[in-house]
Each structure stands twice: as C-alpha cells, then as structure tokens.
Amino acid sequence: LERQLANIPLSGRTTEFEAKASQIRLELCENLSDILLCDPTVATQYDVAAKLWRGCFYDRIVELRGRISRASRSKSMDKGEKKKILMGLEKTLQQFLSEAIKLYVYLIGKYESMLVPQSTQSQSQLSYQSQESRSHDKRNKKSSNGALLLSPPSSDDSTHFVVAQGVIPTLYRILIHQGDLYRYDGDFTMAESSYSKASKLAPGKGNPYN
C-alpha cells in the first residue's frame, strides 16, 4: 500500500487519481492503526507510528499546503478563479486535519488507557511483557514475569503501573504527531499541550516538535 501510494503522481492529478490515492491512504491508515492498537511491541519494532504519520498524513498535508502556496502566488488566474481554488484547497486541508486529529485523539486515548494501575486492570486483558527502557528511574522495578512496573510517586507502594513493551515510545511519537497536526491547524495551545505531554514521557530529548 505504501508503494502504491508513492507511485501516484503528486502533480497533475486527475479526480480519478485523487480518489485512488484517498482509498489507498484510508486502507493503509486502517491497517497501521490496527497494528498500533493490537500490538504495541510490534508497532515499536517496525516504527508503525512513523509509517502512519508519513504515509497517511504528513505527505498529504505537505502536498495540500504546497498547492495552496502555489495557487496563492499564481499570476495566471484572475482573482475570482484564484479565490475559488484557494477556498477549495483550504477546505480540503481543514477537513483532512480535522479527521486526522480525531484519529490521533482516539489512538492516544487507547494508549493512555494502557497506563492504568495494575489493581484496576481486568483479568481479561492481555498479559503484558517486559519493556526495555533506557530511562529507568529509581522507582522502576520489575516483576517476576519481566513486566515493567512503574511505581507512582506516592508513599503507598501497594499499587504499581504495568506498561506493555512499546507503549511509552509509541505514545511519545503519536503525541508529537498530534502536536504537529494541531500546529498545522493553527491551534498552538493544543499543539503545545501535546508536545508537553510527549516531553514528560521522554525527558532530555529536546524540542519534541519538528
């Protein structure tokens, strides 16, 4: 699907090409989202968050922004035609960003739900495997089965947080991408909120945004 999407020309697209690209992008988005939700370990191993961002959203955003920029600079169109084209492109971009943000809000909600106290987790949930981490702090401990237990900063040590391998690094990435979406949408307050959440998951990485 990624190769099929890459083979569709960006310039001179017909309505047929646009429809085909949208269909491939939708299918790719669904497949990658399923992987992210079903197996955070595999998602991290194959950098699925980056594939989702690049293949389904970033390239399309860059394309639309480029078309808007070129149309606004064009001297070959009269004002009425230019205004109509720009309004259409800007509306398309706005709708695309809105749908993308909805997906990322959903994905982040699902990943944050994996960071719940062990005592409140249902026995029907998937058993969590060990998580490799380069930023263990003094409170981090491992259980007998290798799952990473994150103790909350509390005097009551009876509750631990069990985190599946891959959850934190993937959540970090999708928070950054959500911030980028808000930034492209002009909502800088929400963008900063997403970047701030990401930086708390991976302190020391510098500016989380592009």
From TrEMBL:
<dbReference type="GO" id="GO:0042162">
    <property type="term" value="F:telomeric DNA binding"/>
</dbReference>
<dbReference type="InterPro" id="IPR011990">
    <property type="entry name" value="TPR-like_helical_dom_sf"/>
</dbReference>
<feature type="domain" description="Telomerase activating protein Est1-like N-terminal">
    <location>
        <begin position="48"/>
        <end position="185"/>
    </location>
</feature>
<dbReference type="Pfam" id="PF10374">
    <property type="entry name" value="EST1"/>
</dbReference>
<dbReference type="InterPro" id="IPR019458">
    <property type="entry name" value="Est1-like_N"/>
</dbReference>
<dbReference type="InterPro" id="IPR045153">
    <property type="entry name" value="Est1/Ebs1-like"/>
</dbReference>
<dbReference type="GO" id="GO:0000184">
    <property type="term" value="P:nuclear-transcribed mRNA catabolic process, nonsense-mediated decay"/>
</dbReference>
<feature type="repeat" description="TPR">
    <location>
        <begin position="172"/>
        <end position="205"/>
    </location>
</feature>
<dbReference type="GO" id="GO:0005697">
    <property type="term" value="C:telomerase holoenzyme complex"/>
</dbReference>
<keyword id="KW-0802">TPR repeat</keyword>
<protein>
    <recommendedName>
        <fullName>Telomerase activating protein Est1-like N-terminal domain-containing protein</fullName>
    </recommendedName>
</protein>
<dbReference type="InterPro" id="IPR019734">
    <property type="entry name" value="TPR_rpt"/>
</dbReference>
<feature type="region of interest" description="Disordered">
    <location>
        <begin position="125"/>
        <end position="157"/>
    </location>
</feature>
<dbReference type="GO" id="GO:0070034">
    <property type="term" value="F:telomerase RNA binding"/>
</dbReference>
